[in-house]
Amino acid sequence: MRIIGQIILIAGLAAAGAGAWYGWDRLAGGEAGKASATVTPATVRPVTVELAAVTPRQLARVVEAVGTARAMDAVTVATKISGRIAELNFTPGTTVEAGRVLAALDDAAARANVAQLEAAVHEAQTQLERTRQLRQRNAVSAAEFDTRTTSLAGARAQLAAARAELADHKVVAPFSGRVGLRQVSIGAVVGPDTAITTLDDIDPIKLSFAVPETALAQLSAGQTVAARSAAYPDDAFTGRVQFIDTRIDVATRAVTVEAAVDNPDGRLKPGMFMAVTLTLDPGPDVPTIPEAAMIREGRLAYVYVAGTDGVARRRIIEPGRRQDGLIEVLKGLEPGEPVVVAGHQRLRDGAPITVATGTGTPPAAAG
After folding, report:
1. How large is the average pLDDT for residues 323-352?
2. Using one digit for the tens of pLDDT, what is the confidence trace for 162-184?
3. Could you tell me if residue 325 is left (phi over 0), alpha (psi between -120 and 50 degrees) or otherwise beta?
4. Are residues 273 and 290 in the same domain?
5. pLDDT score for 362
6. pLDDT value, residue 184
7. Are residues 267 and 300 in the same domain?
8. Which parts pass through the membrane (predicted)?
9. Domain limits at 306?
10. pLDDT at 121 over 60
11. Biggest alpha carbon distance in the chain?
């Protein structure tokens, strides 16, 4: 019995000791947890950050659209009359000046007709002069003189028509531009409906695109346009607005705008699809911050503002337009306030900060 009692006593003392140890460990752990959860500037190492001030700037208002390149002037070159092609005086893809003869029809018959009518005019002039002399001596009647006069006028009219028909045997460029491919060959019989080639004036080239009617009040001729093509992704082609349509499309609620884009090397072709950025008149100065300063969490946007007490405070903002690495701030910041642009990945609201040398000016302490 004594042995059993001793065993029970030893077991009880062991259990009591284990309980006391467990309780002490829990108590010590709880206090340590409380100490580690408390974050104060006095106990956390400052985070090195870079700052930038909220700066008022003008941000250009832009409209992005898609457009189609078109020639300033474009025609399908054809003859006025029917005939056989005798000459083709152009090289496809080259630039020609206005008035240059691009093609000529066989004009042998037309030239012969002009020569015949020139002779008829000469004869009519001779007959009229002879009749005038006779009329002065009253050798012929006034009616005879009038008949000769009418005959000369008729001959001259026929000659003028023949010369015009002869001129129509030559096809000339109506304006300066770049000719397209040959559609016919020398010796082919063509008519007014037969295309010989095309002629396009593409320097500058016309760019047509639609602008929403909401931007109509800020839209005006002379505004800058930048255009890009998938064919030349690294190049921007610049131009200016020339014309604004007088009507709004009732289906799209947009107005058609035409801009002239410089195209000296002819790389842009009529029909090309282009992405257009139209710069509208800039508005007043607005507060801006670098894009790197803004942090997004879902629909929420915020920044860290450096306070005069050496800590960073999280502040929710309402961003506006973006341009050239800057963001317009509609609400939440005032000009001159310093915001963190680098190092905010390790920041928390109320965390102490130190400003990296040469990257910004820490806010002055109050008092």
Report:
1. 90
2. 999 999 999 999 999 999 999 99
3. left
4. no
5. 55
6. 95
7. no
8. none
9. 47-58+284-355
10. yes
11. 186
As a whole number of angstroms, the distance between CA 364 and CA 367 comes to 9
- Dump pLDDT digits (tens) for 283-318: 788 899 999 999 998 889 999 999 888 899 999 999
122 and 261 in a single domain? The answer is no
The span from the CA of 51 to the CA of 347, in Å, is 13
Q: Give the confidence band of 28 by pLDDT, cuts at 50, 70, 90.
A: very low
- Whether residue 298 lies inside any domain: the answer is yes
Number of domains comprising the chain: 3
Is residue 11 scored above 70 in pLDDT? no
> Tokens representing 263?
């195209």
For residues 238 and 224, is the Cβ–Cβ distance under 8 A?
A: yes
Show the 3-state SS of the chain. CHHHHHHHHHHHHHHHHHHHHHHHHHHHHHHHHHHHHCCCCCCCCCEEEEEEECEEECCCCEEEEEEEEECCEEEEECCCCCEEEEEECCCCCCEECCCCEEEEECCHHHHHHHHHHHHHHHHHHHHHHHHHHHHHCCCCCHHHHHHHHHHHHHHHHHHHHHHHHHHCCEEECCCCEEECCCCCCCCCEECCCCCCEEEEECCCEEEEEEEEHHHHHHCCCCCEEEEEECCEEEEEEEEEEEEEEEEEECCCCEEEEEEEECCCCCCCCCCCEEEEEEECCCCCCEEEEEHHHCEEECCEEEEEEECCCCEEEEEECEEEEEECCEEEEEECCCCCCEEEEECHHHCCCCCEEEECCCCCCCCCCCC
Q: Which two tokens stand for residue 227?
A: 């255009």
Could you give the CA distance from residue 161 to residue 211 in angstroms, rounded to a whole number?
51
